[in-house]
Every structure is written in C-alpha cells, then in structure tokens.
Amino acid sequence: MKYTCTRNSKIEISASEAIVKGISDDGGLFVPSSFPILSLADIENLIPLDYPERAAKILSMYMDEFSFEELLGYAKRAYNRFDDDAVCPLVKVEDGLYMLELWHGPTCAFKDIALTILPYLLTASKKKLGINEQTLVLTATSGDTGKAALEGFKDVDGTHVVVFYPVSGVSEMQRLQMVTQEGGNVHVFGIKGNFDDAQAAVKRVFNDKETIDALKAKGIAMSSANSINWGRLAPQIAYYISAYCDLVDSGEIELGDKINFAVPTGNFGDVLAGYYAYRMGLPVEKFIVASNANNALTDFFNDGVYDINRVFYKTMSPSMDI
User: In Å, what is the CA distance from 93 to each residue of 71, 83, 96, 97?
Assistant: First the structure.
C-alpha cells in the first residue's frame, strides 16, 4: 500500500517512509491512499485470536512491506508490558453499555497502545530503508502522550526522544511522570503556553530547513510520536475492531450488528482511528465525539469552522485541553 500527503496527492511513499518521516516536508500528513477492506468473514476470523494477533492482522493490511510474522513479533513484545493478558479488555457495565479498558499499559494511558509498538515499527522501518541516521523524535503533549512516548522510546538504540509540555497545562502527576523518566535518551522541556503552542512549535521545527540541515550534518533525522505520525495512529485502529470481536464472541451482539462508540477526544486522533476502522468495513452506527470546555471539534462539526483563536480553558481533564 502506498501513502499520499494531505497537501499533495501526487506524493506516493511506503508505510516505512511515512513512519520514519512522520510528517511531509510541506507540513501535510501522510495517509493511506485507500482503505483496505475488512469483510464480515474477516472479522469472524479475528474473533478466536488474541489481541497481539488481531493487531498484527490489522496492521498487515496497511503495512504490506512487513510480514505478518514481523508485526506479530512487535505486537507481542509491546503488549507483553501490559498488566492484563487481554491488553484491551472489554467490560460490560450494563445491557447495551460497555467499557473498553485502555489503561493497562506501562503509563496507564491509552496512548500506550500505540507508543509501545511504535519504536519497533520505527526501528524496523529504518532498517528496511537502509537508514543509519539517529532519529530525533519530537513530541508535544498535553499530558498522556509525553510519558507514553518517553517510556516507549527509552533506551531504544538509534533514537532520542524530546517532549515539550505546557508548564501550566498538565496535572502534577503527569509532570512528575515526565520529569522523573529514566533512560539515557530522553529529554523533557516545559514551555510557557498551552498544548497548541507546543504542537505548533514542533511543526515549525519539522519544516525549518536550517534546523533540518544542521541535524542532517550530524547524522540526525527527525520524526514524531504524535498522532500526526501514521505509525502512531495505525495501531489504534486495532482496538476498535477488537472490541467488536469481543462483543460478538461474548454473544452480546450478532456478527453484522452495528454499534456506537463514545470517545473522549481532544484533537480527534483517537476517534479518527475508529473512523478508519469504519471505512474498512467495521459495522458502526455512529461515533459520539465527547469534548470538554475546549470544544473546538464540537464547534467544527456543528458550524464547519475551526477557530484557532478560541478561548483556551484549563479543566480537570488536561489531556483533552487542546
């Protein structure tokens, strides 16, 4: 499968290139050129598999230069660090209401699902492309992504990870998680401003030719661990499909029944993975996009306007303060 750019449809690159680069030179995002098809028969075949096997099957549909065995090895090593064998267990709350538990990873954040496997995907992609440069992973965070990225990339050969967080925009626990991170290749910086300021700064660095050339002269190339990187978004598709498999397997629904997903979201990355699952063929009736006071997405869907000059609120859910 080839990947194209949201700002230039003439660009065609491989999954490995998309993962290593993280973002296009023109600031656009790399996205699959098409949606692989997931039939009801395919979903039925996923039901008896464990989570790493399901994840590897889904990833192999998007990353055809990787073998299933390669991807399964990465998934097993990544998810072996979770404290529940199911990795993402689905728990029944009451009839018709279920909770997908995404907090069983090493940092207790749902970002662990992607950020424990991304280092394997990045390292393998570099080998496939014959890249020997060091990789500088730049990440902006509103709380959860920072710690998950630091934990995922700590002491990974050939990488350094740098996290930028808003000093007044994360909880004290999140700050302590980041600034006490162990590892010889991890770096954390607090900035004045909010998450959007941090994210904008990271994107500017990605597109700054002087910085790119200076790093290249030292044998360093940049990548990202934010959801702008396809290697970060793709693993999240798997848990939407896995949740559906579990509902069918437990007899809560019949294969082919449509379900709803309610997803707390800040910048739409998580629910976008669900949308990809839907476009592949997962039977979904609707996605409920839940926002806090920083409801830029709510306004966007209602009015079609994304206001970058909106008022920013600090809330008790800082990871959604975007």
Answer: 33, 21, 8, 6
Beta-bridge partners for 262: 288
CB 240 within 8 Å of CB 58: no
Tokens 């390669």 appear where? 70
**How confident is residue 243, by pLDDT bands cut at 50, 70 and 90?**
very high
Radius of gyration, CA atoms only, the chain:
19
Nearby residues of 222 by Cβ (< 8 Å), 6 or more positions away: 22, 135, 136, 137, 138, 205, 206, 212, 215
d(CA 36, CA 258) in angstroms, rounded, equals: 19
DSSP letter assigned to residue 37: P
Contact 236, 116 (CB under 8 A): no
Give the DSSP H or E segment for 286.
Answer: strand 284-290
Structure tokens given for 101: 């538990």
**How does the average pLDDT of the chain come out, rounded?**
95
Distances (CA, A) of 126 to 115, 292, 314: 17, 39, 39
Are the C-beta atoms of residues 164 and 199 closer than 8 Å to each other?
A: no
Three-state secondary structure call for residue 4 = strand
Active-site residues, by number, are 111
Residue 297: per-residue pLDDT: 81
| DSSP structure string for 107-161 | TSSTTHHHHTTHHHHHHHHHHHTT--SEEEEEEE-SSHHHHHHHHHHTT-TTEEE
SS3 238: helix
Residue range 246-266, pLDDT digits in tens: 999 999 999 999 999 999 988
Sorted by sequence, the CB contacts under 8 Å of residue 97 that are 6+ apart come out as none
Q: Which token pair is 5?
A: 């750019």
Q: What is the DSSP letter of 239?
A: H
